[in-house]
Amino acid sequence: MGDFVGSHSTRAAGAAFQEPCRCGALLDEAAPAGAEERFRGLLEAAPDAMVIVDDTGTIRLVNAQTESLFGYQREELLGHPVEILVPSRFHAQHTHHRNGYANNRQVRPMGAGLELNGLRKDGTEFPVEISLSPLETTDGLLLSAAVRDVSDRKAAEERFRGLLEAAPDAMVIVDDTGTIRLVNAQTESLFGYQREELLGHPVEILVPSRFHAQHTHHRNGYANNRQVRPMGAGLELNGLRKDGTEFPVEISLSPLETTDGLLLSAAVRDVSDRKAAEERINELAGLVESSQDAILAKTLDGDITYWNAAAQQLYGYLPAEVMGRHVSLLAPPEHRDEIDALLERLSNGEKVEHFETLRLTRSGDLLDVDITLWPTRAADGTVVGACAIVRDISDRKRAEAELTALYEQQRHIALTLQRSLMGTPPAIPGLSTASRYRPATQGAGVGGDWFDLIPLGAGRVGVLIGDVMGRGLEAAAVMGQLRSAAHALAKTGMQPRQLMQALDTCVTDLDVPDQLVTCCYLVIASDAGEVTICSAGHLPTLVATPGDGARPLPVPVNAPLGVGGVLYQQSSVVIPPGATLMLYTDGLIETPGSDIEDQLTKLTTTLSRLFTTAPDLEAAADHVLTALLPDAESHNDDVTLLLARLPDAPLAAVTTGLPAVPESVPEGRAFLGKALTSWDCTALADDARLLLSEVLTNAVQHALGPIRLHVCRTATELTVEVSDHSPQLPQPRPAAEDAESGRGLILVRALADNWGVRPTDEGKTTWFTLGL
């Protein structure tokens, strides 16, 4: 029992009942016997075990409850020291407390504040609660101890403490004066105090000082209105840690009615994270409401659940007018099917970004809008709805339309200018061609690509292709100047290397900084089956022969035009009649992310596959563009492509050499007449012989021998060429009335269908043609 008041006694057990006068003294020796019996009856009727001891601690009287509680017979207790009922380890303290009580006689719990234990006869211990009362008798002071077994209450207290420690929140239990009586481990962890630093202290130790007055007021108010509820409802509550830091808390109060009076249980929860989350939510809510974009939320069924101020301004509907209604109300009839498609995509967890469409306002106006939608999910990740940000892009769409129209207008002007500068190559009898020009689809569009076909007469054709580096009108202007110069130079009949040398000077004279030009010029001599070519840094010219595939023409490597100080070289290649030449600019094979050598190989392979037979050139040109530029709308450089198929060989051709002597004139006339007779062209014989006489006479008189006479015919014309070793080019000139010479070339000019003079490495060639 921990501590029973009294001292050890050496009197024999049962003395109280063996000495009736001693027992009767409990009431008074003068008291009647009936009074003693009533006292004994009350003692036996007491609900607690009653043990009466004298001032020496000897047991004088016990009741039946004492026998039941401690397991002794009454005779085994009377006359024995009360310490028989106390565990031995507490004997010393028990005697000290009993003596102390004898000196301070009052009705009170014994061992207040201590854990008291009783000792049964079988040696088991149990918790007890003892109430002491002094009894003044003629035999001196007696002490009455009411002993109660509190095992059940202690077990209940232990269960309560266990529940208290298991609570997820900090639990603080205070009495009606606000003094802390009990806390759990969570309280220690939350506030930073050890348990011992809190017990017995005012609960205000856990409250910031500026709230002490209000806290006392609220606590007293709760004591007068006891119910389970939050404390300080509607107020911002803060806790105070031992280190002086404050934090937001939420407190739930519960009243506890106990034998010691009212206790208040406070469950304290740190809501710092929740407050921070609420602040972020409030910030986001503020941002959503202040957004210039319309923001709305909806269920997966399409019912609107949120509508911000910008949505109201955009569509004209008040929130009350749209909440709960289907979002299709915002779509024009022809766009309502897309609502179902978008909801389906959202239900699958897909985010839809920058979906541009039309929407309908309350007033019936159509708006161009940009919509971004994303699915909203429940805690388990299930898609439960969607949010949408809607931006009015009507102004942007109008601006884009205006810019597109302006761009197309400028592009049309630029392309018209470029096509005017590029010119339209003439159709050349006997030479089949197909050409393609594709302006760049990005940027300025116009560029510096050009090509040209130049009829040189006598069955010869000049083919020119070039590319001025750069983009825009400046490159197109340079291209126009060079094309005009190249065309004029080619008409003089000069050789490719000479033309390239002259163009190099032109580029230098244009004085365009950092301007380079690639160019390729070739002359096709169909009667000889020969192509003479000079390239100024241009991409290889390909030749495709049916059955033999495609290959690059062997060409000396020369620097681009504009470098200056370059001596250009040319080469001559014999190719069979019917072969096709392919010339192109770098936009065809120089594409982003690809290697130019790989693209050139691809072009050669494509051409070889096309020319297993003799394909239609127009279809072949389209096929090449599709193969090399599959995305026709994404190339960033202009593209030029030219296919030219060589004409068939002449029906007949003869050549002879003549010395530079007067006798060569009749000899040449005879040679020509014989040829015309054999070719059944006698209708042209007189004119042909007359013109040959004039040309041969000039060669004999003014040139160096030997002279070469070449005659050929095609299905449409007769060509006569006279070559000599003089570089001096004859010029038609007016002749005086009495002059004996000077009329030969004027006669040739008058009678021939076409005529000309071209320089050669050995000298020059003068030629004329007559139609058949």
Describe the protein.
The protein is α+β, with helices and mostly antiparallel strands. It is rod-shaped. The protein is built from 20 helices and 32 strands. α14 runs antiparallel to α15 (496-510), α16 packs antiparallel against α17 (617-628) and α18 runs antiparallel to α19. A hairpin with a 2-residue loop joins β11 and β12 (261-270).
What structural keywords apply?
alpha+beta, 772 residues, single chain
Q: In terms of per-residue confidence, which ranges show pLDDT below 50 for 5 or more consecutive residues?
A: 1-31
Mean pLDDT: 84
Say how many strands there are: 32
Strand composition percent: 25-35%
Overall 3D form: rod-shaped
Give the biggest beta sheet: 6 strands, antiparallel
Q: Helix content range of the residues, please?
A: 25-40%
The N- and C-terminal alpha carbons lie at a distance of 149 Å
Count of individual helical segments: 20
Question: From the helix content, strand content and strand pairing, which structural class follows?
Answer: alpha+beta
In short:
This protein is α+β, with helices and mostly antiparallel strands. The strands form six sheets. Strands 1, 2, 3, 4, 5 and 6 form a six-stranded antiparallel beta sheet that branches. Strands 7, 8, 9, 10, 11 and 12 form a six-stranded antiparallel beta sheet that branches. A five-stranded antiparallel beta sheet has the order 14-13-17-16-15, sandwiched between helices.
